[in-house]
Amino acid sequence: MSAQSSTSSLTALQKTPIAIIGMSALFAKAKNLQEYWENILGKVNGITEVPESAWNLEDYYDPDQKAPDKTYAKWGGFLPQIDFDPLEFGLPPDTLEALDSAHLLGLVMAKQALEDAGYDQGKEFNRETTGVILGGSGLWKSITPLTSRLQYPLWKKICQKSGLSQEQTDKIIENMKAAYVPWQENSFPGMLPNVVAGRITNRFDFGGTNCVVDAACASSLSALKMAISELIEGRCDMMLTGGFDTDNSILNYMCFSKTPAFSKKDCLNPFDATSDGMMVGEGLGMLVIKRLEDAERDGDRIYAVIKGIGTASDGRFKSIYAPRPEGQVRALRRAYQEAGFSPATLGLVEAHGTGTPAGDFCEFTALNEIFSENNAEKQTIALGSVKSQIGHTKAAAGAASLIKTTLALHHKILPATINITEPNPKFKIEDSPFYLNTETRPWLPKGETPRRAGVSSFGFGGTDYHVVLEEYTPKLPQGENRIHHRPQSILLWGQNPEELRQTCQKALEQLQSPQGSQVYIELQNQSKSAQLPLKVARVGFVATSLAEAIKLLQAAVKQLQKQPQADAWEHPQGIYYRKTGLLLEGKVVALFPGQGSQYLNMGREIALNFPEIQTAYQKLDTLRAKAGLTPLSERVFPIPTFNEVDEKRQTSLLQRTENAQPAIGAFSVGLYKTLQKTGFKPNFVAGHSFGELTALWSAGVFTDDDYYYLIQARGQSMAAPKGATPQGAMLAVTGKVSQIAQWVEGMANVQIANYNAPEQVVLSGLASEIATIEKILSSQGYQVTPLPVSAAFHTSLVRHASQPFGKALDQVKFHAPQLPVYANVTAAPYPKDLSGMRQLLEAQLLNSVQFVQQIENIYAQGGYCFVEIGPRQILTNLVKQILGDRPHLAIALNPSRQKDSDVQLSQGVMQLRVLGLPLNDLENAALTVKTPSSKRKGMTLKLNATNYISDKTKALIGAALQPDSPAEIKPSVDSQTVESKCEEVKGSENEEILASIPSVNPYPSDSQPLSEEIPTLNLSIVSRDQTVTMTMNNAISNNINPLLQAFYQYQQSLAKVHEEYIKHQSQSFQSVLQLFKQKEMTAVAQIDELSTPAAASENSKFDQQNSEVSSVSFPDPTPFKSEPQPLRTPEPQPLNTAPQPLPTPEPEPVHISPIVNYLEPRQPIAPISIPEPVSEVSESSLDSIQDDALSQALLEVVSEKTGYPTEMLELEMDLEADLGIDSIKRVEIMGSLQEAFSGLPKLSPEALAEKRTLAHIVQYLREKMMVTEKKIA
Predict the structure, then answer these.
(1) Using only C-alpha atoms, what is the Rg of the chain?
(2) Where would I find the Ketosynthase family 3 (KS3) domain in this sequence (predicted)?
(3) Measured CA distances, 360 to 363, 468, 697, 944 (Å)
(4) Do residues 693 and 711 make contact, with C-beta atoms less than 8 angstroms apart?
């Protein structure tokens, strides 16, 4: 009864949690999900000045906020260009400019999200129960130009009122219309937001719900709410959700400028004391979600789990536009009621955080009210907003935040919020549960509670949403799941130094080539597990980008040229070289540092990328929680500060013995375990002071849990007694040890605690006496350095630690060491008997550290390569001082506090690999760097949020915007009348020719065609079915000659293409006719008709309709003879291949019969001859002939009707799925084909609808022609 009652009280999401299994992202400076996450981790600012592709700053920007029809904002987040292949999504190129970019980019993002979830096109799943619900707002940048084009009645009235003639008015209006994309059949659906979702379901064949919802800036989370309902209520099994907003148009800027809501600065800084407004951004973000139990059943990779979602409205308030805390509080409370746990258990809140002072204060007020209920903890929950990096992406804002937070949970990372220099003092954030997280930090959980996060999104008009997420704990290990890149290792080798130099030079050239990115990936993959023979020369380095790899490789090549015979060298930039490897078997020593090496945020980057570090700190956090102590992770990775006072306080807390020793131990253990993944195995181990405990653990003396227990116990034992003022201090002194010892003899409570190097010791004792001897030794010229410790270690002053630490040792089990562990007290290996080990370890607290003798003894036993595993490089430097000029190697894995710890670790591993240790690379994440696969030929376009405009339309717009010329040339003329046909030539060759011709404006201000600008050519240009009389001038300035020559070459090229095309068609028809003659001589009479002038005319008709080849005839150009005339420079405009005739004196016309024109001397076309019949023609010959002729003609017609270039078309392409050709377009294509081949059989629309591919149409036509042939026979 109670169980049933408990079940019935569960909320919908408690009964049916929702899993996020796939994502995609396209935001400012991020082309994909990986780049988006890497930008977040790297604190990349995606805000830039408005690019010209969006709108012109000179036209619309004015810093005066009150300037009419101007915006005072000129910054925002803009999408980068990505590759788009319309063929991949079955979109004819001719339709693209009628579609808002959201339609096109939405398809790309949907594909990426499905692929990320593992549901690409090749995977079988139930598409019938898969739906798409997205958040989006009006696509105004598509609507605006179409609406503007319809303003011509107003333009007309204004022009006429201004005194312009009808002719001038008409011309102006046509030019204005030409400056906008024209209306077409796809314009209406192309501007509708809901069709973005519909287009996705159509392309991917989904049968579930599809729609787009608009809740302004909360649209994405509104869509998520509806998508979750589809899953919970069982109508769908998988949903694609998220949001899109590609509108950073001037209309959008004007809207927010007049609100006003924009910042006047060049950055967006939410919750900051200087926040003054928002900035808009473009973006698309999509997520694939399923019921958790289904995702687990299907083996999906699960990023995070949705535990609750709360929605609310602000209700009646002073303004519908002003945010209201009460409404947001409702949404927050409802979200956590549905989730079933307290908001105090969260570690991260991704706020709406737009940067407007009123909005941020309202939001923080609501958050503080909810999260402070029954929660006395202060500053334990990170607060941030991704808008600081990408701007406010409006309808896509919720998706951007949700994706960021999901990845944060997945990677166990608290992402930074940028551009915050000081929290808004009005918030009094220090007295709240929140802190502003301005640094990327590891995310350690709160005790046994899983990591949890909240995401807020609020929309204009008082609509409020809040989503609660929780990390997913897999039932089975999922392996590495990191999606972001980490430092990459590059290792190159050759049989000798010269071959290595050549290899490096070749690799450098390849990295600098257009294929550089691919080569970089191949080098990474090649380097990961390369095991080099000792005899080969080798060089290695670590790079974080392709650009850095090129830079380092350049330095390596230069150094190899400079020192070709060197045995080894190390470049300051982190490049390591050896002529041959070293045999280091049995010679590797692992060293573990002690107290004094700790620093804030030590190993932070390693902790972000490898779980071993976080696991170690998490174990100690749990252990300390049981003792009522502050989590260790909060001491090592404290919340970000905004002043030096707070930072010094944090440093002081970490220096305390009870924090420093377990912190060093946890980092050292995590680092050692990470290094072990490469195959690292030492032959000797040793530690300095506290580090000896870690050395014993590495040798197998203690288990992990016993080790964590002991390092915490040792730190607490050695700390000053509770309530007592620390009396001890330590001082490092550099100088001759014997002389320093003499000074120490006179101090009753000071002794030498550490013999660190031949000329360095550490003194330990009462703080007052340490201060005295510091002054004495300093005055005598000794170098003295106080150490950051809180007690006088290795003296009787820490005797209070012996008893509690001894009790702790009694609680753990000792095991025999698996390799030699050299002791501080004896400088010899630990004894093998367990009792002796325990006694020696306990005695270490009160006795001096004999580190110099330890290293000497290890070296004497064969130790050669010393590797320091822990924070900083204190022991590495001591080893170098101890061994001096004797051959040895000393390497630190974390030498600097200022540099990236992961880069340093990778460099350390690379040094060891170059030396000759048989190690693998550290990189072993689940994210595999994929080699781009070869795909079928396509039409790749570059797209961003700006709507696509074809080159043809750009040319028309450019022509419309060109100013009319103020003067005109009036030449004297010689006349000739020619009747001809003018057709446009299409094809890649001609496009190249066109591209090579200088852009000119062929028309003067009175719209006279080019013929009157080029008087020396006796030029014949005739529009279709029009007779044009042209009068040519034989005298003009020599300045026109380059233009004439270019135009003449262009026409020659067109004619050559036309000639080849006619030859091809003639040969095809000859072959078909020959076949018919072979089969049935009685059909000769009918076939003979094909070679008559009427047939030639029909052939010409085909040429006109299918290929549209321009036929223009020229004589050779003659030199200019007349005196120069006044000449103007025409403005660049596209050439008009069909100019209108102009009025000229009418001489007696000369009528010339229609012919196929060539630029070479004109000759009549020979009639089609019919070859003599041959004995047999195989069936395969028929197939070949018809396939060649019909296939090529079909491809050309499809290209003409759709805009696809012929070179990317293939017969196997699906008419609808691949090419987007609907039933109406099929009829148009077939009509053109039948006009070209008059003998082709007629096809009904029903028959056409059954043909799936272009090849099916060719096959069907071939079969029909064979039937016709049999009837003739």
Answers:
(1) 40
(2) 15-471
(3) 5, 20, 50, 30
(4) yes
Q: Is the peptide bond before 1241 cis (omega within 30 degrees of 0)?
A: no
The strand pair at 889-892 and 865-868 is best described as parallel
The per-residue pLDDT for 857 is: 99
Residue 1101: what residue type? K
Close Cβ partners of 221 (under 8 Å, ≥ 6 residues apart):
135, 215, 309, 398, 402, 455, 457, 465, 466, 467
Domains and CATH numbers, the chain: 10-139+192-471 (3.40.47.10), 488-578 (no CATH), 588-628+654-719+799-893 (3.40.366.10), 727-789 (3.30.70.250), 963-1066+1107-1170 (no CATH), 1179-1272 (1.10.1200.10)
Interval 600-633: pLDDT, tens = 999 999 999 999 999 999 999 999 999 999 999 9
Whole-angstrom distance, CA of residue 895 vs CA of residue 904: 7
| Euclidean distance between CA atoms 495 and 1014, whole angstroms | 68
Q: Which of 1230, 1247, 1225 lies closest to 186, judged by CA? A: 1225
Length of the chain, please?
1273
- Find residue 287's DSSP bridge partners: 23, 241
Q: How far is CA 1147 from CA 128, 258, 553, 973, 974, in A?
A: 74, 65, 75, 11, 9
CA distance 1225 to 1207: 20
pLDDT at 1079: 44
* Residue 768, token pair as written in the block: 């007052």
Name residue 1211's amino acid.
L
Report the distance separating Cα 1247 and Cα 1261, nearest Å.
Answer: 11
Q: Which residue has the tokens 């290996």?
A: 829
DSSP string, 170-213: HHHHHHHHHTSPPP-TTHHHHT-THHHHHHHHHHHT--S-EEEE
List, for the chain, all residue ranges whose pLDDT scores fall below the cut of 70.
1-8, 477-480, 722-726, 924-938, 964-1187, 1238-1239, 1243, 1266-1273
Question: For 217, phi and psi rounded to 5 degrees?
Answer: -75, -5
The half-sphere exposure of 1008 on its side-chain side, counting CA atoms within 13 A, is: 20
Q: What's the pLDDT score for residue 1038?
A: 40
- SS3 (DSSP) at 774: helix
CA atoms within 13 A on the CB side of 751: 13
- Residue 409 is predicted with a pLDDT of 98
Crossing angle of helices 802-810 and 834-843, in 10° steps, is 160
**Closest alpha carbon to 426 in 495, 498, 362:** 362
SS3 27: strand
| Residue carrying structure tokens 């003879």 | 1121
CA distance 710 to 973: 107
Q: Which of 517, 493, 513 is nearest to 503 (CA)?
A: 493
What distance in Å separates the CA atoms of residue 440 and residue 417, rounded to the nearest whole number? 8
Q: Residue 1084: its pLDDT value, please?
A: 40
Q: What are the residues whose beta carbons fall under 8 Å from the beta carbon of 263, sequence distance 6 or more?
A: 73, 75, 275, 276, 277, 278, 279, 355
**What CA–CA distance (Å, rounded) separates 1008 from 1043?**
17
Q: What is d(CA 843, CA 343) in angstroms, rounded to the nearest whole number?
A: 49
The β-bridge partners of 84 are 941
Enter the pTM of the model: 0.80
CA 601 to chain centre: 28
CA distance 477 to 500: 42
**Between vectors from CA 1208 to CA 1207 and to CA 1209, what angle results, nearest 5°?**
95
Residue 212 β-bridge partners? 134
Is residue 519 within 8 A of residue 513, CB to CB? The reply is yes
d(CA 634, CA 443): 10
Distance CA(639)–CA(87), nearest Å, equals 50
- The pLDDT of residue 1271 is 56
Q: How far apart are CA 7 and CA 252, in angstroms?
A: 49
Confidence at residue 833, expressed as pLDDT on a 0 to 100 scale: 93
Q: In angstroms, rounded to a whole number, what is the distance separating the alpha carbons of residues 27 and 283?
A: 4
- Contacts with 207 (C-beta within 8 Å, 6 or more apart), sequence order: 127, 128, 129, 130, 131, 201
